[in-house]
Design brief:
44% of the residues lie in helices and 0% in strands. With 93 residues, it is mainly alpha-helical. The termini are close together.
């Protein structure tokens, strides 16, 4: 859950809705179903970027490109790298 104001998809203007959709379309298939679904979609990582839709679009487009299945790393290697970065940064999630 974010601690900043977010704009749920249902309340978003057209630019923000497009950013939500574009980010979702680039995500790996296994991310299609949320682990902890929230009815209005307001408590996900993309919503934390909803106040700046251009930033949402670019940051999640970059993530989607880096997770493309045709790249040399497999998913478990991506996850291992992400885990080590989180540990190094002392990030609790």
């Amino acid at each position: 859950m974010t601690w900043i104001r977010t704009i749920p998809p249902a309340e978003a203007d057209e630019e923000t809705k497009r950013a939500y959709e574009a980010g979702r379309d680039l995500y790996p298939a296994e991310y299609a179903t949320p682990v902890f679904p929230v009815g209005d979609g307001s408590q996900n990582i993309r919503a934390s970027h909803s106040l700046i839709p251009q930033a949402m679009h670019h940051s999640f487009a970059a993530f989607g490109a880096m997770m493309a299945p045709d790249l040399p790393l497999v998913r478990r290697q991506h996850e291992m790298i992400a885990t080590m970065v989180s540990v190094t940064n002392r990030c609790h999630y």
